[in-house]
Every structure is written in C-alpha cells, then in structure tokens.
Design a protein that fits this description.
With 343 residues, the chain is α/β, with parallel strands linked by helices. It is built from 16 helices and eight strands. The structure holds inosine and zinc ion (ZN). Residues 19, 21-22, 60, 64, 67, 102-104, 107, 142, 173-174, 201, 204, 251, 281-282 line the site of inosine (NOS). Zn(2+) binds at residues 17, 19, 201, 281.
C-alpha cells in the first residue's frame, strides 16, 4: 500500500536544491509588488501564467523564461529579505529540517545593490526564518551561465567572504545547453582553490557527460544529474566519489529532461546505491511542494519508509555543514523516522 500523505507530511526532510527566485509564494509576490510599486496583471490566471511554468515546456531554456518577471521584484534588500523568509516558511510546511536556498546575486543588481548587500539581505531573511520556523537554513550562491565567466568568479569570491556567515557553497545555474561545465572551468577552479563546497547543475539537457565533467572539475554534488541514466559508463565514477544527486521530479518533467516515468531514474539510482535526494527546485515555477514531490515518487514506485529514510540520510550526508551539525541533523532524522516506524 502506498505510504499515506499524512505520513509523508510527517517525514523529516532535508532539502538541498531550492531556488529563491523560483519559490516565492503568490502571497509574498503580491506584497513585493506593492512594496516595489510594480503592477501585477489583474487576474489570478494571468499572474499564475507569469510565474508558473506549464507542465511541459520545450526545454530548460523555456522553463527559465519564468524567472524574468520575478527578478524585477527582487532588487532591494527589503524585498530579498522578505523573499528568503517566505521560502523558509514554506519549507517548514514540508517538515524540512535543513534547507539550502540558492540564488544568483548578479540578478539582483538592477537598482545598484552590491553583491555583498544582496547576499547579506538574503542571509538575514533565511536566519530570521530559521528562528521563526525552526528550519536550519543556509544559502548557496549561483553563477549564471549566460553571463561572462568573470561574473561567476566574482560570485565565488563573495561566497568565500561569507562562508562562515550563512553561505555554504557555490553553484552554476541557467543555460546548460549552450554553456556546459568546461565553459566555466576557470570559475570552478577559483571556487575549488578557495575551498568552497560545490554543487553544479548538470545533466538537465540530455548530456550525461556534463555530469561526469562537472564532477571531474570538482563538484561535490550535482543539481539533477538525470542524464546520467543514458551514460552508464559514468555511473560507477559518480558512486565511488559519493556524489550527491539533487533530483526534482516535477521540474525534470517540465524541462523535458524526461518524458515518461519509465525513463525517470530515481529508483534506478537509489537501487544502484547512488546518493539521491528529493527536492522542489522551484516551489512556484514548478507549482509544487516537497510533500507533493515525495507523494508523487511514493505513488509511482511504491516506496517504503526505508527508502525515504535513505533519502534523508543522503541529504544529511550531502549538506554543506560541519560534522557537528550533520550529527545533530542525523539524530533528528533518526528520531522522527523511528516515531513513524512505530505507527
Ligand atoms: O532547474 C534549473 N536549471 C538551471 N537553472 C535554473 C533552474 N532553476 C532555476 N534556475 C536558474 O537559477 C537562477 C537563480 O536562482 C534562476 O533565476 C534561474 O534562471
Ligand atoms: Zn535548479
């Protein structure tokens, strides 16, 4: 029997892959629009069309178009702080115990904020959310692939300067089709040399080699990694190096990374012993919650509590936190799963 939604809601979760700009609730979007004096379309349907991607888009780049408008609302420190707070609040509804929220500082400079000001504002919102909702929260900084590599290098340096202040890692996001990992070799090297933990988007555009290349270049984790399913020759390497894969089912279908459940590799990866995790990617753009992502996978694969326990353990393993925090998170996960086992 499929695990009930009630049990899923109670499972302790670790979310490693969630974008700030793709995950702001409509309620907070309304507040931001007022604060920033930017009119929204009149009807709910029109607003949804602006911020939510259809169930199917042509590809990743079409999905990414849904990030354009929201960017305009996130150009002041007050807006960024409120947005970050809102995402932690939503994570608490999914019983997330630890979340890493990612964003690209260079997308928030339209009104003259510096990268440091942007990062501080987001971290402030995350930490306020952490206190208010009891979800441990850190930030990841993204370099954008359509921008010059110098920007990504700058972002990596900002990440380094804030590493003990709520920033825990560096990512590359955006257009993977035209800018594969080696296009950003220089920026990745700077991040590596600065000892910044790395998670890189890869394998979202039918390109398994990108996953391998990202890891060769130094990624500790991979955003999505789905295309690895088509390149079995790299799977052992990913496994040996204990690379954590951040899957996000709804997003993976929307971007046409997969088109059927038969080819979705979640269970295959899990059974192979790869360190898979479940994520929302973008709560708003993908119109989802982490509970919904869990429920979908539970239904498709008839997953057991043990499977989900493994997923949470993989999340703790992959979290960019020190050993002491990992131990604490591990204990919370153990305790809460034990309670569920008793049901
Ligand atoms: O699944 C994804 N793949 C690649 N890039 C993404 C994905 N989701 C969001 N972004 C990009 O990351 C930026 C910073 O948060 C977003 O503005 C969006 O362009
Ligand atoms: Zn992503």
């Amino acid at each position: 029997m499929t695990i009930s939604k009630q049990i899923i809601a109670q499972m302790p979760k670790i979310e490693l892959h969630c974008h700030l700009d793709g995950s702001i609730s409509l309620e907070t979007i309304h507040k931001l629009a007022k604060m920033e004096n930017i009119p929204l379309p009149a009807t709910l349907e029109e607003q949804q069309a602006l911020f939510i991607a259809p169930e199917e888009t042509k590809d990743l780049n079409e999905y990414l178009e849904k990030f354009h408008f929201i960017g305009r609302l996130l150009q002041t420190t007050a807006a960024l702080e409120l947005a970050a707070f809102d995402v932690v609040k939503q994570a608490s509804y999914d019983n997330v115990k630890y979340i890493e929220v990612r964003f690209a500082p260079t997308l928030h400079t339209m009104k003259g904020l510096t990268l440091q000001e942007i990062v501080s504002a987001v971290v402030k919102g995350l930490k306020r959310g952490e206190v208010e909702f009891g979800v441990l929260s850190n930030a990841l900084l993204c370099g954008m692939r359509h921008e010059p590599v110098e920007n990504a290098i700058e972002v990596a340096k900002v990440a380094k300067s804030q590493l003990t202040h709520g920033v825990v890692g560096f990512d590359l996001a955006g257009n993977e089709v035209d800018f594969p990992p080696y296009a950003f070799e220089e920026a990745i090297k700077v991040a590596k040399d600065l000892d910044i933990p790395l998670t890189l988007h890869a394998g979202e555009c039918h390109c398994g080699k990108n996953v391998y290349d990202a890891v060769v270049l130094g990624a500790n984790r991979i955003g999505h990694g789905i295309a690895l399913k088509d390149t079995p020759e790299y799977i052992e390497y990913i496994k040996e190096n204990e690379i954590v894969l951040e899957l996000a089912p709804t997003s993976n279908f929307q971007t046409k990374t997969v088109t059927s459940w038969e080819e979705y590799p979640f269970k295959k990866f899990l059974d192979l012993g790869l360190k898979v995790t479940i994520n929302t990617d973008n709560r708003t753009v993908s119109n989802t919650t982490l509970n919904k992502e869990y429920a979908k996978l539970a239904e498709v694969y008839d997953l057991t509590l043990k499977d989900f326990y493994k997923v949470s353990c993989n999340g703790v393993f992959g979290a960019f936190v020190d050993d002491e925090v990992k131990k604490e998170l591990g204990e919370i996960v153990n305790e809460e799963f034990e309670k569920l086992n008793g049901h």
